[in-house]
Amino acid sequence: MSYNNLMRLDRLLANSGLGTRSKIRDRISHGIVQVNGTIVTDASFHVTENDSIIYDGQEINCQTKLYYLLDKPDGVLTAMEDKRLPCVADYIPSELMSKKLSPVGRLDYHTSGLLIITNDGELSHRLQSPKYEVPKVYLATYRGLEWKDSEIAAIASGFTIRDKGYSEDIAPAELKPAKPYEDGSLRALLTLHEGKTHEVRRIFAHFEKEVIALRRIELSGIKISEGLDECGTFRALTGSELNMLFNATGLN
Ligand code: URA
């Protein structure tokens, strides 16, 4: 259920972090909750996010801003709902499903790694805007020849891709070859400051390399492990991580 819909008063208050539903039901029955100025003692009373709710004399902000990090596994859609395929909502605890959370930007179905999940629309918009040039670091495993200095220089100065029947300018980015895996697979780190569709895969393809695994390991200074062991982790951002996002997007 989303906040656009009606929701039971006790559930909404529990979702706002005020305690367990049984404790809240007890408090409601004691007449400490007002909805739009009227005392409500029925926990099943239906409310929406637009109602004014006072709990024990305190105005409740039903739209509290929340910030999480998901280490998205490979084979998961960056979507809050899908009838057939696993999606990021499957990794979000059910008690948060009414909080209007959504992923910031998009990772491909076959890209794993760092995804910010929030209900802060302004932060989400700014993190995706090319204006703030928020750096995102991708670790790509690829097939093809090793990178030439001239290719790395072209990426550093920006270049034009023609791969979909039209031209698209790619902003300057940083490519760093990384130590190959023990099995000899080639790897490279690519830092982008914008977010065009399939951008990493298209940059590699432009230089005749095929990305076979892709993982976002850093966003605006927030880092996650390079390996796959943490995939599926969902956790709240720490205060210092949040500061990094606010500083990078001029929201501090
Ligand atoms: N670039 C890609 O090609 N895929 C992603 O998921 C993210 C960036």
What report would you give on this structure?
By secondary structure, the protein is of the alpha+beta class. It has three domains: 7-59, Structural Genomics Hypothetical 15.5 Kd Protein In mrcA-pckA Intergenic Region, Chain A, CATH 3.10.290; 67-130 and 229-245, Pseudouridine synthase I, catalytic domain, N-terminal subdomain (Alpha-Beta Plaits); 135-219, Alpha-Beta Plaits, CATH 3.30.70.1560. It is built from six helices and 17 strands. It has helices at 9-15, 21-29, 121-128, 149-157, 199-206, 239-248, and strands at 7-8, 33-35, 38-39, 46-47, 53-55, 58-59, 67-72, 102-103, 111-118, 136-143, 159-162, 167-170, 174-178, 186-192, 210-219, 222-223, 234-236. The strands form four sheets. Strands 7, 8, 9, 10, 13, 14, 15, 16 and 17 form a nine-stranded mixed sheet that branches. A four-stranded antiparallel sheet has the order 3-2-5-6, with no helix packed on it. A hairpin with a 4-residue loop joins strand 11 and strand 12. Helix 1 (9-15) crosses helix 2. The radius of gyration is 22 Å and the shape is elongated. It starts with 6 loop residues before the first strand and ends with a helix. The structure holds uracil. Residues 107-108, 111, 198-201, 214 line the site of uracil. Uracil (URA) is lined by residues 107-108, 111, 198-201, 214.
The structure class reads: alpha+beta
Named at the architecture level, the CATH assignment of the largest domain is: 2-Layer Sandwich
Q: What's the total count of β strands?
A: 17
Kindly report how far apart the N and C termini lie: 32 Å
**What do we call the CATH homologous superfamily of the largest domain?**
Alpha-L RNA-binding motif
User: What bound compounds does this protein have?
Assistant: uracil
